[in-house]
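Is NDP placement plausible here? Inputs below.
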Amino acid sequence: MSNILFIGSGHMSEAIIRALIKNKVYKPQNILVNDIVKSRLDYLQLTYGVTPSEKIVNADIIVLGVRPQDAWSDIVQQFKTNKIIIISIIAGVTIAQIKASLTVDIPVIRTIPNTLTDTGFGYSGIATDVNDQAVARQRSVTQFFNSFGKLEYIDESLLDIFTGYAVAGPNYIYYFYESLVDAGVLVGLSRDMAKRIAIENLHGAACMLQTSQKHPRQLLDINNSPAGVGIHSLYELNNSDFAAGLQRSVRAGVIRTVELGKKQ
Ligand SMILES: NC(=O)C1=CN([C@@H]2O[C@H](COP(=O)(O)OP(=O)(O)OC[C@H]3O[C@@H](n4cnc5c(N)ncnc54)[C@H](OP(=O)(O)O)[C@@H]3O)[C@@H](O)[C@H]2O)C=CC1
Ligand SMILES: O=C(O)[C@@H]1CCC=N1
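Reply from A.M.:
I modeled the complex. Tokens:
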């Protein structure tokens, strides 16, 4: 079996490692982890049985899991063989930037993975340059990507937008859920009951949007009788900055992604 090395083994790498093991794409012993934090390596070894690697070694696939602000450029300069494939999960940093730091011609695939790996939901974006497209179709690479949710192969020019909208996406939902649960508590429900109701409505409303073929406005209409409860509560939401606040938030995520990529 081929092996894979994660350099920078934080939250996102861990979510991918969990998916790789769960979906039997790699055995734990074929997953090598490198991080500057030794306790992180101990934790990953103990939790998943993966192999810690305090030095950067060669592997069939090398996942760059450090942050855009970290020394990714110094890391990639250490690769001296073109027998590896680099998969970068670093937000904002382009394939051209990574290739410019390489001293050997190594294929680079850029992905922006979604932390929803445990659920099978959530889109991850993938981009390659034309020269590396054949490499991206290799069995080991396809298996790697297929293990963590749904995939969208996109042009690299869309990847930063995809990051702010799709991959930061669970944030908007978590925050909405938290605010909704607080609203339930505010009007007098126990937190437990407010949570159960909110999660059920989230699932149910998502199902309606997916299966009913109806525009959200039509669904809102069904849910609001004349002079009734729903339209009164929506009136307040309309009066708030809710929609524009959400849209500004997504735009800020996209802008920050671009900004982070320019830092090095
Ligand atoms: N979390 C998410 O939802 C997503 C994250 N990403 C991308 O994944 C990458 C990692 O994010 P995330 O996992 O959340 O971040 P974390 O901070 O959890 O993980 C990064 C890890 O890399 C370590 N590190 C830093 N520099 C080096 C180095 N030179 N060599 C080895 N290890 C190093 C860090 O150590 P220390 O903390 O000591 O610096 C840390 O343990 C980022 O580029 C992010 O853009 C992409 C999609 C989604
Ligand atoms: O904040 C982050 O670094 C990651 C990238 C996209 C969403 N979260």
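Short version: The two ends are 36 Å apart (CA to CA).
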